[in-house]
Design brief:
Elements lengths: L1 E3 L6 H14 L9 E3 L7 H12 L20 H9 L29
Parallel strand pairs: 1-2
Helix pairs in contact: 1-2
Enzyme class: transferase
InterPro entries: 2-IPM_HCS-like, Aldolase_TIM, LeuA/HCS_post-cat
Organism: Helianthus annuus (Common sunflower)
């Protein structure tokens, strides 16, 4: 199911629309709900996080900028680049948008043989 609403809705109104869909659509727990939020006034990140908070739907972990794993780097070459010059792989600080970097290493870290 894909929804598209006018971009003039407030975050609260948009969240309420999604909450209404969840409350009134039988079997909605078996459906992936995808929404498209416009970037009005440069508030795309804020809007996404607000919709997540009010609707109870979680942003995909791999979603750019706002996903929980958006600032995680598993590849050894990415981790090396991060140590040398962080802005090579990150155009902004995770802390600037309320996320915190994971220091866990992924399974792919290490030398190739």
């Amino acid at each position: 199911m894909v929804t598209h609403y006018p971009s003039h809705l407030s975050c609260l109104e948009f969240g309420q629309l999604i909450a209404d869909i969840k409350a009134n659509a039988p079997g909605i727990e078996n459906v992936i709900v995808s929404t498209h939020c416009q970037n009005d006034l440069g508030l795309s990140t804020v809007n996404t996080l607000e919709v997540e908070e009010y609707s109870g739907l979680q942003v995909q972990p791999h979603k750019a900028i706002v996903g929980a794993n958006a600032f995680a780097h598993e590849s050894g070459i990415h981790q090396d680049g991060m140590l040398k010059k962080r802005n090579t792989y990150e155009i902004m600080s995770s802390e600037d948008i309320g996320l915190f970097r994971s220091s866990e290493s992924g399974l792919t870290l290490g030398k190739l043989r």
